[in-house]
Structure formats: structure tokens, C-alpha cells
Design goal:
mainly alpha
Length: 235
């Protein structure tokens, strides 16, 4: 916990308070928006690799399906041929997971910041060079109390998650003659709708500050994915 506090909680908490101090009007919601943009910008290199890795994996799925059908009775040969494709195409099958492993601790740290850091008692964790605001106004545009759950933020975050997920799914239709069509359709359905619905359910119980972070991050990531995928189509 000490390492977690030193490496993630305190830096994020101090950055948020510093932004809160310098933003005209001291709007906590605007501070969260800037904090989100800063975090997402720092993760851009990893995000680019992650999106490209997921797109490359989708592109070779037909070839992998051929191998699975051709060597369905020889699992060892099947695995060898699939690994050969990864090697030839220079694809890391775990390339898209690295970003998740990095974002998860950040998300947990932000949850701790938004859950505990909104209390004035937490201001003792400020660095010496960060001004103490004494009291924190946790409203967004003087409308939303960011310390409490907000159903609208939760739903909007779920919608953002839907479009972000939908964008990375294969665009081609699944053939009804394919034996695995039903399974593939079920997987696409779960991938498209489960995560957004899960996002809404989770955010309905958490401070809406986290929902605001999710919304801004979702919009940022969706635009980023669009730009990356568009460039990949041209190459």
C-alpha cells in the first residue's frame, strides 16, 4: 500500500488539486477533465500499439480459422501453425493486454482519490509545493455533486464504452453457413453490450467524479481509435 500511495495515489491526488487550484473558478469537474486528458495523452504510445495489435489480430482471424479447420485433430500442429503466423506477421497476441494492466492500477488509484481525496482531511497528503485549497468544492459547473453517484453520467459513460468497443469489432458480416457462426455472433454480442452495461452498473454505485473521468477518457479514446484506424487503412 505504501508503494501504491507513493507511486500512484499521491501523484494523481496532487496533480488534481494543483489543477483545481489553477483553473479559474476552481471547478472540480474541469480539473478532472484536464487530469483525464493528461493521463490519456501520456498513454497515447501504448494505446496506439494496443489498437494496432487488436486490429492485426482481427485481420488474421480468417487464416487462423483455416488452420483450426485443417488441423482440427492435431492440436500441436494447429498451435505451431498459429504461432508461425504470429511470427511472420510480427504480431504479439498479448499486445493489447499491456495497456489494460497499466490502466487498471491508475483506475483504482483514481477511485481512491475520488472516494477519499474529496475530503478536506486528505489535504495532508499534498506535496509542499502544491497550495492547500483548505476546502474543496466538489461540484461540476455548480450542478453535479461529483462525490455522489449520478445516473446520467453512468449512462453516458456506458454509451461511450459501447462506441469505443464497437469500433474495434470486425466490420465483415458473419456467414450463416459457417459452423461457428452462432458462437461468433454470441461473442460479438457479449463484447459489444456486456462491457457498456457492466460500466453503467458499476458507475451507478461510485462517485460521479469517476463517471466524468470515464466519459472524457471514452471520448478521447474513441477519437484516438478513429484516427489510428483511418491511418492504418491508408497504409
Amino acid at each position: 500500500m505504501d508503494i501504491f500511495n507513493i507511486v500512484l495515489y499521491k501523484p494523481l491526488f496532487n496533480l488534481l488539486i494543483a489543477l483545481y487550484n489553477y483553473i479559474p473558478g476552481h471547478d472540480f469537474g474541469i480539473a478532472i477533465i484536464f487530469l483525464t486528458i493528461i493521463i490519456k495523452t501520456l498513454l497515447v504510445p501504448l494505446s496506439i500499439k494496443s489498437v494496432k495489435s487488436q486490429k492485426d489480430l482481427q485481420d488474421i482471424q480468417p487464416k487462423i480459422k483455416e488452420i483450426q479447420d485443417k488441423y482440427k485433430n492435431d492440436k500441436e500442429r494447429q498451435a505451431k501453425e498459429v504461432l508461425e503466423i504470429y511470427k511472420t506477421k510480427k504480431i504479439n497476441p498479448f499486445g493489447g493486454i499491456l495497456l489494460l494492466f497499466i490502466q487498471l492500477p491508475i483506475l483504482i488509484a483514481l477511485y481512491s482519490v475520488f472516494r477519499n481525496g474529496l475530503n478536506s482531511s486528505e489535504l495532508v497528503n499534498l506535496y509542499s509545493f502544491v497550495s492547500n485549497p483548505i476546502n474543496i468544492n466538489v461540484s461540476f459547473l455548480n450542478i453535479v455533486d461529483l462525490s455522489k453517484p449520478n445516473v446520467y453520467f453512468a449512462v453516458i459513460a456506458g454509451i461511450c464504452q459501447y462506441f469505443q468497443t464497437k469500433m474495434l469489432l470486425p466490420s465483415q458480416k458473419i456467414s450463416s453457413n459457417d459452423k461457428s457462426a452462432d458462437f461468433a455472433k454470441a461473442m460479438q454480442f457479449q463484447t459489444t453490450y456486456f462491457l457498456p452495461i457492466f460500466t453503467v452498473i458499476i458507475l451507478l454505485t461510485l462517485p460521479s467524479a469517476l463517471g466524468l473521468y470515464w466519459i472524457v477518457g471514452g471520448i478521447f479514446s474513441t477519437i484516438q481509435q478513429y484516427v489510428i484506424l483511418k491511418k492504418m487503412k491508408k497504409t
